[in-house]
Amino acid sequence: MKNTNIHEGIILIPDFSGFTEFVFNTKLYTGEYIVRQLLSTLIDMNEQYFEISEIEGDAILFYRYDNNPSYRKISTMLWKMRNAFDQKIKELNKELSMSIDMSLKFIVHYGKFSQYKIGTFKKLYGKTVVEAHQMLKNEFAEQPSYALFSNSFLENSSNSELEINTQKYHLPEGGVIHYFENVN
C-alpha cells in the first residue's frame, strides 16, 4: 500500500519548562488563564507560518511541509516567540501579583511524516514526530531556556551556518543546542 500523503517537513515543539510544578502549585482557574495566555502568545508569534497539529498541556506541535527549510527564518521566529513569552510572563506576574516560574524550550526537527484525519482532528504520524517528542526528554540541556536544532534539520536547512548570537553546544548524537541566556 503506497501512501501519497507522506511529505518532508519541519516539526517545531515549544514546551514550557517548570509546567508540572506550576500546575501543582497554582489554583485551577488561575493556572488555566496563565497557560491559555502563554500558548496564545506563541501561536500569535507564529504568524501562521506553521500549522498546528496539537496542543497538549504546555506544548504545541507545530509542523510545516517544506523541502528547503530556512535555519535563519526559524531561529529568528524562535527568538521572537521566546521574547514574547518572557514579556507575557512579566505582564502576568504584574497583573496577578504572583511569580510565574516557567521558561521555554524548543525542539526543531526535520524529516518525513504523514497526516491523517479522525473526525475533525488532524494527526501527524511518523518516526520524525516520535523523534521530536523524544528530544524533549533530552539530558543534554544545562538550563531550561534553549532551542535544540536536530542534526536532520541542520543538514536539510538553508543558511544553517549557526550565526545567531547565542551560546551553542554541538551534540553529535542530537544536533545543536542554542541557549537564550548564558550557561551558569
3D structure, described in words:
The chain is α+β, with helices and mostly antiparallel strands and 184 residues long. It has a single domain (7-179), classed as Alpha-Beta Plaits (2-Layer Sandwich), CATH 3.30.70. The protein is 37% helix and 33% strand. The chain has five helices and eight strands. Strands 1, 2, 3, 4, 5, 6, 7 and 8 form an eight-stranded mixed sheet that branches. Helix 2 runs antiparallel to helix 3 (71-96). The chain is globular. The mean pLDDT is 86.
CATH topology: Alpha-Beta Plaits
The main sheet comes to:
8 strands, mixed
CATH architecture: 2-Layer Sandwich
- Report, as a whole number of angstroms, the end-to-end distance: 52 Å
Number of domains: 1
Shape: globular
What share of residues is helical? Answer: 25-40%
Number of discrete helical segments:
5
List its traits.
37% helix; 5 helices; 184 residues; alpha+beta; Alpha-Beta Plaits; 8-stranded mixed β-sheet
Summarize the structure.
The longest helix has 26 residues, at 71-96. The protein is built from five helices and eight strands. With 184 residues, it is an alpha+beta fold.
What order do the helices and strands come in, and which of them pair?
Elements: E1 7-17, H1 19-25, H2 28-46, E2 51-56, E3 59-65, H3 71-96, E4 103-118, E5 121-125, H4 127-136, E6 146-150, H5 151-156, E7 167-171, E8 175-179
Parallel strand pairs: 4-6
Antiparallel strand pairs: 1-3, 1-4, 2-3, 4-5, 6-8, 7-8
